[in-house]
Amino acid sequence: MEELIYRDRRGTNASKWNRLSPRFTREDLLGLWVADMDFAAPACVREALHKQVDFGVFGYDVTPDAYYEAFLHWEKTYHGYEPQRAWLRYSPGVVAGFNWLIQLLTKPGDGVLVQTPVYYPFLSAATDNGCRLVENELVNTAGVYTVDLADFERKLTEEHVKVFLLCSPHNPVGRVWRREELAAMLELCRVHGVYVISDEIHHDFTHGGHKHIPAATVGEYDDMLVTLTAPSKTFNLAGLKNSVVIIPDEKLRKAWDSYTGKLHTATGGSFGVIAAQAAWEGGRPWLEQVLQTVEGNYELLRTELVPRKPELILSPLEGTYLAWLDLGAYVKPQEMAAAVEGRCGLAVDYGAWFGGHAPCHIRINLATRPENIRQAIQSLADHL
């Protein structure tokens, strides 16, 4: 089994650890926020990139068939999803991809529906593209989140929604949506003529027997559904700027091709392609080690922090590598930065960033060494 290699990323221009101001009040915080990992990428990825570097020619490349074959094999093997090769398109990242799709599918003033609290680029994707942000806030029952379907449908109709941005698995609340939940939302979008953009970048991170269900496998929604995913979360390759856009509908593919053709971004850099192919072909043993580490770190929070702060609410971790904690029993909303940064010395994502009503929540990145999680536990237990 491949060993995980932890790297101290201070002084390496890693955004999680360096230049924390002005977002945070101090530079010496323990970095537990940005959703990338503190582990070196799989050995197969490093070896493939070394081979290319040693070759020494970095000219224009075409994307090889083996890249697409590796992705399709991964999706079929681990998610039971079999998209066609002709449906696959490139984007430098999932965030760029769903922003481009919103530009293609909406006109100024249209509604874009999101389920808050949610990954905060979802919020700006609506407003930055001239649309109205429409929130279907998830129902929080003692840390377990569910969809308010009545409000979901009401928002679709009353707010003139054109696009629903689905986060699956959900960041930050950690839900892995069940098939029946996905089917209910997709069918309502079908009835009301709403496009669905499904961000499934965390799809390889599921825990406790939960299984990711690709939205595209739920029913016949090819004409209204686009799926985005990437190797960046799965194999810690975010800096290589490579993601996959799956567009089953021919008319929408042509619109995408026309749009990206004008941007001259139809293909990505060779390093991103090489790394992704190598990871899909040989990175599964490494990923299994990451999953064990993430689950172990979550257990540390559950067994060592919660007993010491029994009124803290730790949401179940069904998916992602991000823990979602409600500190509201110990900290007032206006005191969050003073408590978490000032007294505890932690750089985390604050619930207020994710929309909805989560003013005293924090999101902690579990894709790091257990020692960092233990340090965070000690700080939170001692200083909240």
General description of the model:
- By secondary structure, this protein is α/β, with parallel strands linked by helices.
- It has two domains: 30-42 and 284-383, Aspartate Aminotransferase, domain 1 (Alpha-Beta Complex), CATH 3.90.1150; 59-282, Type I PLP-dependent aspartate aminotransferase-like (Major domain) (Aspartate Aminotransferase, domain 2).
- The protein is built from twelve helices and 15 strands.
- Strand 7, helix 6 and strand 8 form a beta-alpha-beta unit.
- Helix 1 packs antiparallel against helix 9 (270-282), helix 3 runs parallel beside helix 4 and helix 10 (284-305) packs parallel to helix 12 (370-383).
- The longest helix has 22 residues, at 284-305.
- The two termini are 39 Å apart.
- The model has no long low-confidence stretch (mean pLDDT 97).
Summarize the structure.
This protein has helices at 43-55, 65-79, 94-105, 121-127, 149-158, 179-191, 231-235, 250-263, 270-282, 284-305, 336-343, 370-383, and strands spanning 30-31, 88-91, 111-114, 132-135, 139-141, 144-146, 161-167, 195-199, 225-229, 243-246, 313-314, 322-326, 346-347, 349-350, 361-365. With 384 residues, it is of the alpha/beta class.
